[in-house]
Each structure stands twice: as C-alpha cells, then as structure tokens.
Amino acid sequence: MPEELQFRFKFEELPPPGAHAVTVEEGIQDLLKKLDACGGKCPDSLWSLAGLYQGSGELDKASECIQRFMELTDDPEKLGVGHLGLGCLEEKRGDYAAAAQRYRTALSMEPCSTGTWYFIHNNLGYSLNQIKEYSSAIPYLRTAVEIDPGRPNAYKNLGLAYEALGNLEQAAELFITATQVNAADSRSLKHLKSLVGANPALEVDIPNLRERIEACEKAVEVARQHKPDFDKYWDRLRADQLRADQLRAEQKRKWWQFWRRRKDATKD
C-alpha cells in the first residue's frame, strides 16, 4: 500500500464584513477621481487601476498606469514589481519572449519580497517554457520552488519543462507534488492525467501511481466542494447595498415630506 499522501488547499479569502461591492467600471472611475485629486501622482491608485484595466482586457491602459507607477519611484522593490507587472501584460498579449525580457529586468532589481521574488522566477520559467527554452527554464523554476515551496505554480511549470524534455517520471512526481501543495489548483492533476494517458507505461515505472492519482482526484474534489462562491457572495452583497440605498432614499423622502408639512404649517 502506498504511503498516505498529505494535501492542502487554499483559496482567495472572501472580503471582510462591511466590504463594498462595485463593478469594474465603478472601480475605475473611483480610482480616476482619486488620481485627479492628487495630480496623477498616487502610486497605489495607479497600481490598482492597472489591475482593473488588465482584468477588463485594456492592456495598453494597464501598461500606461504601470509605467507611470514606476516613474514615481526609485525603489528597486517597486521597480521590480513594476517590471513583473509589465511581464504579465506581455503574457496576456501572447508575446512570451518580451515577457521573459521583462522578468529578467525585474530579476536585476533584486526585490526582497518573497512573493515578488517567487513570481519573477516562476513567470520567467513559464515564459521560457512557452518559447520552448525548457532547459533554460528549469533553473529559474527550481529557484522559485526553493523560495516558496508552499506554492504550486513552479512545481507545475517545472513538471511541464521536464515532460517536454522527456523526463516523464520526474514530471509526474512534480504534478503530484503541485497538487499536494494546493489541491484547489487542479491544473497539475489535469497535466498528470494527460501525461499518464499518453504514456501508460508510467503506471508500471512509478510505484502506486494509480493510487496516487486517485488520491489527487479525491483531494481536488474536496477542495472544489469547499471553494467559496465569489459570484454568489458579490451578488448578495450588491443586493444588500441596493436595498440599503433604497431604504435611505425612502427615509429621505419621508423626511422631506415631514419638513414640507412643518414648513407649510408655519405659514398660518
């Protein structure tokens, strides 16, 4: 019998009580007003605005915001974050060679934040995979795993690099590890099942592989069942806000009627 596998899963947390639900367009307009009030020199607003533009597919506007964000600082940490963000935009455009160059520039800034340092290495490895420079990707992805072994992304991308280079057993082990690290991210399990489906001999070469795949499947299903329903949460929050706005409007209308009656009564 195989040793029992241990799994974890982690989701983005729901907003705290009292959070205010806004649409992307409302968020953009709010940030534009804040920028206008500070003469366009608020780094936090620029960075948040870039994120909203990126999420809505307005990549050129997102890039402009990040460039302005970088112009306001000489801090290597923030410059590294900026080049990381620009690299992500190049990925969105499908230009992975340009993305890799951005990540190399970010690397030269040597930011000390664990998250930033991790994703610079991971994203550089991912982009090199996309342009089929698998051997070049591996050192960056190994470093990303060392920086933060609790994230699944680098294990997955490292597995894809090894798969492309023909090291199928190592790839399978990495896909399993990625799933163990965060079963809420099911991408590595999909890669694992695809790999084994195309190479059934792996079930002979790797001890207990079938049982381990089944354990991964169960863990991913458990994680799926615990995943917060963000759409439902935001719809409910939005509906609550609408009801509160309607109640305030009704109270204001009643107050106005009362004031008019008082005012009319004083005319006598």
SSE inventory with pairings:
Elements: H1 24-37, H2 43-55, H3 59-71, H4 76-93, H5 96-109, H6 114-130, H7 134-147, H8 153-164, H9 168-181, H10 187-198, H11 202-205, H12 209-226, H13 230-266
Helix pairs in contact: 1-2, 2-3, 3-4, 4-5, 4-6, 5-6, 6-7, 6-8, 7-8, 8-9, 9-10
Can you give a write-up of this model?
This protein has about 270 residues and is mostly helical. It has a domain at about 150-240. It is built from 13 helices and no strands. The protein is flat and about 80 Å long. The N and C termini lie far apart (about 95 Å). The model has no long low-confidence stretch (mean pLDDT about 90).
**Count the helices. How many?**
13
Poorly predicted ranges = none
Q: How confident overall, as mean pLDDT?
A: 90
Intertermini distance: 95 Å
User: What overall geometry do the principal axes of the alpha carbons give?
Assistant: flat
How much is the radius of gyration in Å? 25 Å
**β-sheet strand percentage:** under 5%
Helix content class: over 70%
Give the SSE order as H and E letters: HHHHHHHHHHHHH
Largest sheet: none
Specify the oligomeric state.
single chain
Global structural class: mainly alpha
Counted beta strands: 0
